Amino acid sequence: MLQPADQSTIERAAAILKRGGLVAFPTETVYGLGADATNARAVARIFEVKARPQFDPIIVHVASADAAHALWTRCPEPAAALMRAFWPGPLTLVLPKTERIPDLVTAGLPMVAVRMPDHPVALRLIQLAGCPVAAPSANRFGRASPTTAAAVEEELGEGVDLILDGGPARIGIESTVLAFDDGTPVLLRPGGVTVESLREAVGPIAMRGRPAQRRASPGMLQRHYAPRTPLYLLEEAEAPADGLLAATGTVGLLSLTPASLPVPVGHAEVLSPSGDLVEAAARFFQALRRLDQRGLDLLIAVPMPRHGLGLALMDRLTKAASGRAWIKHGTVLLAGHGTVTRRPA
What we know:
Elements: E1 2-4, H1 7-18, E2 23-25, E3 32-36, H2 40-50, E4 60-61, H3 65-69, H4 77-86, E5 91-96, E6 111-115, H5 120-129, E7 133-134, H6 149-156, E8 162-165, E9 176-181, E10 184-189, H7 195-202, H8 211-214, E11 231-234, E12 245-246, E13 251-255, E14 265-270, H9 277-292, E15 298-301, H10 309-320, E16 323-328, E17 331-336
Parallel strand pairs: 1-8, 2-8, 4-6, 5-9, 11-15, 11-16, 13-14, 13-15
Antiparallel strand pairs: 2-3, 3-7, 4-7, 5-6, 9-10, 12-17, 16-17
Protein backbone atom coordinates (compact mmCIF):
# COMPACT_ATOMS: atom_id res chain seq x y z
CA MET A 1 0.00 0.00 0.00
CA LEU A 2 2.96 2.34 -0.51
CA GLN A 3 1.93 5.24 -2.76
CA PRO A 4 3.57 8.54 -3.81
CA ALA A 5 2.16 11.44 -1.80
CA ASP A 6 0.36 13.37 -4.55
CA GLN A 7 -2.85 15.32 -4.00
CA SER A 8 -5.23 12.49 -4.92
CA THR A 9 -3.42 9.99 -2.68
CA ILE A 10 -3.38 12.43 0.25
CA GLU A 11 -7.15 12.88 -0.21
CA ARG A 12 -7.54 9.11 -0.18
CA ALA A 13 -5.41 8.89 2.96
CA ALA A 14 -7.54 11.54 4.68
CA ALA A 15 -10.67 9.52 3.88
CA ILE A 16 -9.04 6.46 5.48
CA LEU A 17 -8.35 8.43 8.67
CA LYS A 18 -11.92 9.71 8.76
CA ARG A 19 -13.31 6.17 8.70
CA GLY A 20 -10.97 4.95 11.46
CA GLY A 21 -8.09 3.55 9.42
CA LEU A 22 -4.32 3.84 9.73
CA VAL A 23 -2.08 5.90 7.46
CA ALA A 24 1.71 6.13 7.59
CA PHE A 25 2.87 9.57 6.51
CA PRO A 26 6.08 11.63 6.29
CA THR A 27 7.05 14.39 8.68
CA GLU A 28 10.26 16.39 8.90
CA THR A 29 11.42 14.18 11.80
CA VAL A 30 10.48 10.55 11.04
CA TYR A 31 7.52 8.75 9.44
CA GLY A 32 4.43 8.54 11.65
CA LEU A 33 1.67 5.95 11.92
CA GLY A 34 -1.48 8.03 12.11
CA ALA A 35 -5.05 7.59 13.31
CA ASP A 36 -7.86 9.97 14.25
CA ALA A 37 -6.79 11.03 17.75
CA THR A 38 -10.43 11.47 18.84
CA ASN A 39 -11.35 7.89 17.85
CA ALA A 40 -10.24 5.49 20.61
CA ARG A 41 -10.96 2.44 18.46
CA ALA A 42 -8.71 3.76 15.67
CA VAL A 43 -5.96 4.63 18.16
CA ALA A 44 -6.18 1.10 19.59
CA ARG A 45 -5.17 -0.21 16.16
CA ILE A 46 -1.93 1.78 16.41
CA PHE A 47 -1.03 -0.08 19.60
CA GLU A 48 -1.94 -3.40 17.98
CA VAL A 49 0.02 -2.89 14.76
CA LYS A 50 3.11 -1.54 16.53
CA ALA A 51 2.89 -4.06 19.42
CA ARG A 52 3.14 -0.95 21.59
CA PRO A 53 2.39 -1.11 25.34
CA GLN A 54 -0.61 1.00 26.31
CA PHE A 55 1.33 2.75 29.09
CA ASP A 56 3.32 4.63 26.43
CA PRO A 57 1.51 7.84 25.38
CA ILE A 58 1.23 9.02 21.77
CA ILE A 59 1.96 12.46 20.33
CA VAL A 60 -0.97 14.18 18.62
CA HIS A 61 -0.31 16.12 15.41
CA VAL A 62 -2.23 19.24 14.38
CA ALA A 63 -2.19 21.60 11.42
CA SER A 64 -2.44 24.89 13.34
CA ALA A 65 -1.84 26.48 16.72
CA ASP A 66 -5.60 27.00 17.11
CA ALA A 67 -6.15 23.26 16.70
CA ALA A 68 -3.63 22.62 19.49
CA HIS A 69 -5.33 25.07 21.84
CA ALA A 70 -8.60 23.17 21.28
CA LEU A 71 -6.93 20.08 22.80
CA TRP A 72 -5.52 21.79 25.92
CA THR A 73 -7.38 23.28 28.87
CA ARG A 74 -4.64 25.88 29.34
CA CYS A 75 -1.44 27.06 27.68
CA PRO A 76 1.09 29.08 29.72
CA GLU A 77 2.85 31.98 28.03
CA PRO A 78 6.22 30.15 27.72
CA ALA A 79 4.43 27.42 25.73
CA ALA A 80 2.74 30.01 23.52
CA ALA A 81 6.12 31.71 22.95
CA LEU A 82 7.68 28.40 21.95
CA MET A 83 4.83 27.73 19.52
CA ARG A 84 5.43 31.11 17.89
CA ALA A 85 9.16 30.44 17.65
CA PHE A 86 9.25 26.80 16.54
CA TRP A 87 5.91 25.77 15.02
CA PRO A 88 5.57 24.23 12.57
CA GLY A 89 8.60 22.19 13.56
CA PRO A 90 10.08 19.37 15.63
CA LEU A 91 8.84 20.58 19.03
CA THR A 92 6.17 18.80 21.09
CA LEU A 93 4.46 20.47 24.05
CA VAL A 94 2.78 18.53 26.88
CA LEU A 95 -0.13 20.32 28.56
CA PRO A 96 -3.42 19.44 30.32
CA LYS A 97 -5.86 17.82 27.90
CA THR A 98 -9.52 18.39 27.16
CA GLU A 99 -12.10 15.58 27.13
CA ARG A 100 -11.80 15.47 23.35
CA ILE A 101 -8.67 13.32 23.62
CA PRO A 102 -9.31 9.72 24.78
CA ASP A 103 -7.31 8.43 27.75
CA LEU A 104 -5.82 5.73 25.51
CA VAL A 105 -3.83 8.41 23.65
CA THR A 106 -2.29 9.73 26.88
CA ALA A 107 -1.85 6.42 28.74
CA GLY A 108 -4.44 7.60 31.24
CA LEU A 109 -2.53 10.76 32.13
CA PRO A 110 -4.27 14.16 32.25
CA MET A 111 -1.71 15.67 29.84
CA VAL A 112 -1.51 15.40 26.05
CA ALA A 113 1.59 15.86 23.88
CA VAL A 114 0.90 17.95 20.75
CA ARG A 115 2.97 19.23 17.87
CA MET A 116 2.55 20.84 14.45
CA PRO A 117 4.80 19.08 11.92
CA ASP A 118 6.82 21.03 9.37
CA HIS A 119 6.02 18.93 6.30
CA PRO A 120 3.56 19.84 3.51
CA VAL A 121 2.24 16.27 3.17
CA ALA A 122 1.60 15.90 6.90
CA LEU A 123 -0.09 19.29 7.17
CA ARG A 124 -2.29 18.71 4.11
CA LEU A 125 -3.29 15.26 5.38
CA ILE A 126 -4.30 16.61 8.80
CA GLN A 127 -6.22 19.50 7.22
CA LEU A 128 -8.16 17.22 4.87
CA ALA A 129 -8.86 14.67 7.60
CA GLY A 130 -10.39 17.43 9.74
CA CYS A 131 -9.16 15.91 13.00
CA PRO A 132 -6.04 15.84 15.17
CA VAL A 133 -3.89 12.85 14.23
CA ALA A 134 -2.30 10.60 16.86
CA ALA A 135 0.95 9.36 15.36
CA PRO A 136 3.91 7.60 16.94
CA SER A 137 6.79 6.52 14.69
CA ALA A 138 5.70 4.01 12.04
CA ASN A 139 7.72 1.01 13.22
CA ARG A 140 7.49 -1.94 15.56
CA PHE A 141 7.69 -0.74 19.15
CA GLY A 142 11.18 -0.16 20.50
CA ARG A 143 12.92 -0.44 17.11
CA ALA A 144 14.78 2.21 15.13
CA SER A 145 12.41 4.85 13.79
CA PRO A 146 11.74 4.88 10.01
CA THR A 147 12.92 7.86 7.99
CA THR A 148 11.75 6.53 4.59
CA ALA A 149 8.50 5.02 3.32
CA ALA A 150 10.37 1.84 2.37
CA ALA A 151 11.46 1.41 6.00
CA VAL A 152 7.81 1.70 7.08
CA GLU A 153 6.78 -0.96 4.58
CA GLU A 154 9.57 -3.23 5.82
CA GLU A 155 8.53 -2.75 9.46
CA LEU A 156 4.74 -2.82 9.29
CA GLY A 157 3.78 -4.20 5.88
CA GLU A 158 0.08 -4.87 5.46
CA GLY A 159 -0.73 -3.67 8.98
CA VAL A 160 -1.11 -0.16 7.51
CA ASP A 161 -4.00 0.82 5.22
CA LEU A 162 -1.86 3.26 3.23
CA ILE A 163 1.75 4.49 3.28
CA LEU A 164 2.32 7.97 1.84
CA ASP A 165 5.79 8.25 0.31
CA GLY A 166 7.01 11.81 0.74
CA GLY A 167 10.72 11.07 0.40
CA PRO A 168 13.35 10.82 3.17
CA ALA A 169 12.72 12.67 6.43
CA ARG A 170 14.66 15.94 6.48
CA ILE A 171 15.66 16.02 10.17
CA GLY A 172 15.78 12.29 10.84
CA ILE A 173 15.26 12.17 14.63
CA GLU A 174 12.09 12.69 16.63
CA SER A 175 10.83 15.95 18.08
CA THR A 176 12.02 17.61 21.25
CA VAL A 177 9.39 17.21 24.00
CA LEU A 178 8.74 19.79 26.72
CA ALA A 179 6.35 19.79 29.67
CA PHE A 180 5.77 22.71 32.03
CA ASP A 181 6.22 22.88 35.80
CA ASP A 182 4.50 26.02 37.13
CA GLY A 183 5.18 27.63 33.77
CA THR A 184 8.86 26.58 33.61
CA PRO A 185 9.70 24.44 30.53
CA VAL A 186 10.98 20.96 31.43
CA LEU A 187 12.86 18.85 28.89
CA LEU A 188 11.34 15.37 28.64
CA ARG A 189 13.13 14.27 25.46
CA PRO A 190 15.86 15.98 23.43
CA GLY A 191 15.16 16.06 19.72
CA GLY A 192 15.04 18.13 16.56
CA VAL A 193 15.01 21.52 18.33
CA THR A 194 18.19 21.94 20.35
CA VAL A 195 18.22 22.92 24.02
CA GLU A 196 20.42 25.87 23.10
CA SER A 197 17.72 27.19 20.71
CA LEU A 198 15.01 26.73 23.33
CA ARG A 199 17.00 28.69 25.89
CA GLU A 200 17.51 31.54 23.44
CA ALA A 201 13.75 31.72 22.94
CA VAL A 202 12.40 31.43 26.52
CA GLY A 203 15.30 31.33 28.95
CA PRO A 204 16.07 28.51 31.41
CA ILE A 205 15.02 24.94 30.56
CA ALA A 206 14.79 22.44 33.41
CA MET A 207 16.40 19.12 32.51
CA ARG A 208 14.45 16.79 34.77
CA GLY A 209 10.74 16.48 35.57
CA ARG A 210 8.54 14.89 38.20
CA PRO A 211 7.83 11.13 37.84
CA ALA A 212 4.47 11.78 36.16
CA GLN A 213 6.20 14.10 33.68
CA ARG A 214 8.91 11.57 32.93
CA ARG A 215 6.38 9.18 31.43
CA ALA A 216 4.16 11.81 29.82
CA SER A 217 5.99 11.48 26.51
CA PRO A 218 6.90 8.64 24.14
CA GLY A 219 10.54 7.63 23.78
CA MET A 220 11.24 7.86 27.51
CA LEU A 221 11.56 4.17 28.36
CA GLN A 222 14.98 2.89 29.35
CA ARG A 223 15.15 0.70 26.24
CA HIS A 224 14.00 2.19 22.95
CA TYR A 225 15.09 2.79 19.33
CA ALA A 226 17.04 -0.50 19.41
CA PRO A 227 18.33 -2.48 16.42
CA ARG A 228 18.01 -6.26 16.52
CA THR A 229 21.79 -6.62 16.58
CA PRO A 230 23.11 -5.89 20.11
CA LEU A 231 24.50 -2.36 20.26
CA TYR A 232 27.14 -1.21 22.76
CA LEU A 233 28.45 2.27 23.50
CA LEU A 234 32.24 2.54 23.34
CA GLU A 235 33.87 3.67 26.59
CA GLU A 236 37.14 5.58 26.67
CA ALA A 237 37.67 5.15 30.42
CA GLU A 238 39.63 2.24 31.88
CA ALA A 239 37.72 -1.03 31.77
CA PRO A 240 36.62 -2.60 35.09
CA ALA A 241 38.86 -5.38 36.38
CA ASP A 242 36.13 -8.03 36.30
CA GLY A 243 32.53 -8.73 35.36
CA LEU A 244 33.05 -8.23 31.61
CA LEU A 245 32.20 -10.54 28.72
CA ALA A 246 34.80 -11.07 26.01
CA ALA A 247 32.86 -10.83 22.74
CA THR A 248 33.53 -12.84 19.61
CA GLY A 249 32.13 -12.37 16.14
CA THR A 250 31.94 -9.66 13.53
CA VAL A 251 31.79 -6.04 14.68
CA GLY A 252 29.90 -3.15 13.11
CA LEU A 253 30.92 0.44 13.87
CA LEU A 254 28.77 3.59 14.06
CA SER A 255 30.53 6.94 14.43
CA LEU A 256 30.01 10.62 13.76
CA THR A 257 33.26 11.08 11.82
CA PRO A 258 35.63 8.45 10.37
CA ALA A 259 36.99 6.29 13.18
CA SER A 260 38.99 3.11 13.56
CA LEU A 261 39.03 0.38 16.17
CA PRO A 262 41.99 -1.83 17.15
CA VAL A 263 39.85 -4.85 16.18
CA PRO A 264 38.56 -6.01 12.77
CA VAL A 265 35.40 -4.19 11.67
CA GLY A 266 33.00 -5.91 9.29
CA HIS A 267 31.13 -2.74 8.32
CA ALA A 268 31.30 0.91 9.36
CA GLU A 269 28.75 3.72 9.07
CA VAL A 270 29.97 7.32 9.28
CA LEU A 271 27.16 9.79 9.96
CA SER A 272 29.00 12.91 8.77
CA PRO A 273 32.59 13.00 7.47
CA SER A 274 32.76 16.69 8.42
CA GLY A 275 31.20 16.21 11.88
CA ASP A 276 28.02 18.12 10.97
CA LEU A 277 25.41 17.14 13.59
CA VAL A 278 22.51 18.17 11.35
CA GLU A 279 23.71 15.78 8.64
CA ALA A 280 24.37 13.12 11.28
CA ALA A 281 20.84 13.34 12.67
CA ALA A 282 19.32 13.03 9.20
CA ARG A 283 21.34 9.85 8.55
CA PHE A 284 21.19 8.29 12.02
CA PHE A 285 18.29 5.83 11.87
CA GLN A 286 19.01 4.74 8.30
CA ALA A 287 22.63 4.03 9.28
CA LEU A 288 21.41 1.92 12.20
CA ARG A 289 19.12 -0.01 9.85
CA ARG A 290 21.92 -0.66 7.37
CA LEU A 291 24.17 -1.98 10.14
CA ASP A 292 21.31 -4.14 11.42
CA GLN A 293 20.89 -5.72 7.98
CA ARG A 294 24.56 -6.68 7.58
CA GLY A 295 24.43 -9.94 9.56
CA LEU A 296 26.91 -8.64 12.13
CA ASP A 297 27.28 -10.09 15.63
CA LEU A 298 27.46 -6.81 17.54
CA LEU A 299 27.52 -3.09 16.93
CA ILE A 300 29.77 -0.56 18.62
CA ALA A 301 28.84 3.12 18.66
CA VAL A 302 31.30 5.92 19.32
CA PRO A 303 29.63 8.50 21.65
CA MET A 304 28.39 11.72 20.07
CA PRO A 305 29.10 15.28 21.29
CA ARG A 306 26.66 16.24 24.05
CA HIS A 307 25.57 19.56 22.57
CA GLY A 308 23.20 20.66 19.83
CA LEU A 309 21.64 17.71 18.02
CA GLY A 310 24.37 15.52 19.51
CA LEU A 311 22.39 15.54 22.76
CA ALA A 312 19.41 13.97 20.96
CA LEU A 313 21.64 11.45 19.20
CA MET A 314 23.18 10.39 22.51
CA ASP A 315 19.70 10.05 24.00
CA ARG A 316 18.75 7.62 21.18
CA LEU A 317 22.03 5.71 21.42
CA THR A 318 21.84 5.34 25.19
CA LYS A 319 18.30 3.95 24.97
CA ALA A 320 19.18 1.66 22.06
CA ALA A 321 22.30 0.25 23.73
CA SER A 322 22.50 -3.15 25.38
CA GLY A 323 25.42 -1.90 27.44
CA ARG A 324 28.96 -0.57 27.24
CA ALA A 325 32.05 -1.77 25.39
CA TRP A 326 35.80 -1.47 26.00
CA ILE A 327 38.61 -2.59 23.74
CA LYS A 328 41.68 -3.99 25.49
CA HIS A 329 44.60 -5.84 23.92
CA GLY A 330 42.64 -6.40 20.71
CA THR A 331 39.60 -7.86 22.50
CA VAL A 332 36.12 -6.36 22.76
CA LEU A 333 34.91 -6.46 26.38
CA LEU A 334 31.21 -5.94 27.13
CA ALA A 335 29.07 -5.04 30.12
CA GLY A 336 25.29 -4.80 30.05
CA HIS A 337 22.06 -6.73 29.72
CA GLY A 338 22.42 -7.93 26.14
CA THR A 339 23.98 -11.16 24.92
CA VAL A 340 26.29 -11.58 21.96
CA THR A 341 26.62 -14.83 20.09
CA ARG A 342 28.23 -15.51 16.76
CA ARG A 343 25.68 -15.74 13.97
CA PRO A 344 25.64 -19.04 12.05
CA ALA A 345 27.67 -19.03 8.87
